[in-house]
Amino acid sequence: YNAVVNTFKMAGWTRVPVGSSKFAIYWGPHPTPEMLRSFNPFQRANHFPNSWQLGRKDLLGKNIHRMKRQFPKDYNI
């Protein structure tokens, strides 16, 4: 976390008050789908809904297996 904060500071970025819509990067807990829909095209978030499905190896494995079963001809990794 300190590496991220230090990098932002070195880039000249500043923290905005919670609830402000004037930001380039939202760094925090998973934003709601409604919040993501309200983002401007230049705004980014460090998480997206259900990203833990890819980040956890056990769930990633289950999802890959499910896709292979559901789309055997099209899904081959």
TrEMBL record:
Top-level taxon of origin: Eukaryota
Pfam families given in the database record: TTL
Source organism (scientific name): Symbiodinium necroappetens
MF GO annotations: ATP binding; tubulin binding; tubulin-glutamic acid ligase activity
InterPro entries per UniProt: TTL/TTLL_fam (IPR004344)
CC annotations in GO: ciliary basal body
Keywords: ATP-binding, Ligase, Nucleotide-binding
GO biological process terms held by the UniProt record: microtubule cytoskeleton organization
Catalyzed reaction equations: L-glutamyl-[protein] + L-glutamate + ATP = gamma-L-glutamyl-L-glutamyl-[protein] + ADP + phosphate + H(+)
Protein name per the record: Tubulin--tyrosine ligase-like protein 5
